[in-house]
DNA sequence: CTCCTTATTAGTAATGATTACTAAATATAG
DNA sequence: CTATATTTAGTAATCATTACTAATAAGGAG
C-alpha cells in the first residue's frame, strides 16, 4: 500500500474526529485540503483501511460510518434523533467468548431512545 | 396494523427460519405461497415489523438480514465465507449497562474467520 | 537522480438494495 | 352490509456504493 496524500488525509480525518463520519462527510472534509479528491477515491481508501483494520466500519443507518481504532467502545443509537453515543464501559471480555473461529473485531450496539429525546416527549 | 395474509406469511417465514434471510430471500419464500406478492410489500412489512420490534434487523453486508425475536443471541460473521453463526452465550447483562437513554434492543457482532475457513487455508 | 513498473487517482457510468408512488383491492369498525 | 382508511401490486425513482478507464504518481532498481 503506497503512501499517498489522499490516504494520509482520510486516515487523519478519521483519527481526529469524535463523530461518526460517513463516506460523504469524509469526502467533504477531504475537499477542504484536496479540492479535487473524488468520492470514489474516498470509498476505495475507506475499504482498504477497514480491510487492514486501520479503521473501523460501523453499520447503523442506510450508510456506513467510520471510527478510529484508538479505543474499543460500544455505541448507543437513538432511533428518534439518530445520534450515536459512544459507550466506553468494558462490556465484553473477548478472550472468554467461544465462537467457531478467530475473532478479528467485534461491535456492541444498543438501540433505543436517548435521554434528550425522552425528555422532549414528556413536555 | 391490519392482519393481512402477506404480513402473516412474512412473520411466519422469519419465525420458522434458522438462517439470516434478507428481503430478497423472504420475497422468494413468500412467492411459494403468494405468487403475486411484490417485493415492495415485503420491504414495507419488514420495516413495520422491525419498527414494532416483532422481528430483528441485522446489518452485516450490503443488505439487511432479519431474525426472529425468539431468543436473544449474538452473531459471528466470517469474512471469508460470509457465513453468519449464531452465538447463544449470554454476553451482556443489559440491566447493568449505563447508556444515556432507554435501551430497546441490542446487538453483539463478532467479525473474523471461521474454523472451516481457517482449516481450508492451512492446506 | 532518472527510468520503469505498478498502484493509485479523478471523473464518470453503472449497480444493487431500498424507498416512493399510485390506482386498485381489502380489512375492519360501525 | 357499507364506508373508510390501510394495504397491496407493480413500477419508477433514489441513494449509497462499486466498477471502469485513461491519466498520474509512488517508490524501487540501476
Count of strand segments of chain A: 6
Could you state the oligomeric state of the chains shown?
homodimer
Helix fraction of chain A?
25-40%
Which second-level CATH architecture of the largest domain in chain A applies?
Orthogonal Bundle
Walkthrough of the structure:
The structure is a homodimer of 123-residue chains. The first copy, chain A, is α+β, with helices and mostly antiparallel strands. Chain A folds into 2 domains: 5-68, Arc Repressor Mutant, subunit A (Orthogonal Bundle); 74-119. Helix content of chain A is 35%, strand content 28%. Chain A has 4 helices and 6 strands. Chain A has helices at 5-16, 23-33, 39-51, 115-121, and strands at 21-22, 55-59, 64-68, 74-78, 84-87, 101-114. A 3-stranded antiparallel beta sheet of chain A has the order 1-3-2. In chain A, strand 4 (74-78) and strand 5 form a beta hairpin. In chain A, helix 2 packs across helix 3 (39-51). The relative contact order of chain A is 0.14. Chain A binds chain B through residues 59-60, 76, 78-79, 85, 87, 89, 91-92, 97-118, and chain B through 59-60, 76, 78-79, 85, 87, 89, 91-92, 97-118. The first copy, chain A, binds a DNA duplex (30 and 30 nucleotides) through residues 1-4, 6-7, 22-24, 36-41, 43-45, 47, 62-64.
Amino acid at each position: 500500500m503506497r503512501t499517498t496524500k489522499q490516504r494520509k488525509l482520510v486516515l487523519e480525518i478519521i483519527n481526529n474526529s469524535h463523530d461518526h463520519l460517513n463516506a460523504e462527510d469524509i469526502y467533504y472534509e477531504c475537499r477542504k485540503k484536496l479540492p479535487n479528491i473524488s468520492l470514489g477515491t474516498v470509498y476505495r481508501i475507506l475499504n482498504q483501511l477497514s480491510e487492514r483494520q486501520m479503521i473501523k466500519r460501523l453499520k447503523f443507518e442506510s450508510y456506513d460510518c467510520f471510527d478510529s481504532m484508538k479505543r474499543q467502545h460500544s455505541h448507543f443509537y437513538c432511533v428518534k434523533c439518530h445520534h450515536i453515543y459512544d459507550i466506553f464501559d468494558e462490556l465484553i471480555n473477548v478472550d472468554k467468548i467461544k465462537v467457531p473461529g478467530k475473532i478479528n473485531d467485534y461491535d456492541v450496539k444498543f438501540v433505543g431512545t436517548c435521554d434528550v429525546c425522552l425528555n422532549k416527549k414528556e413536555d
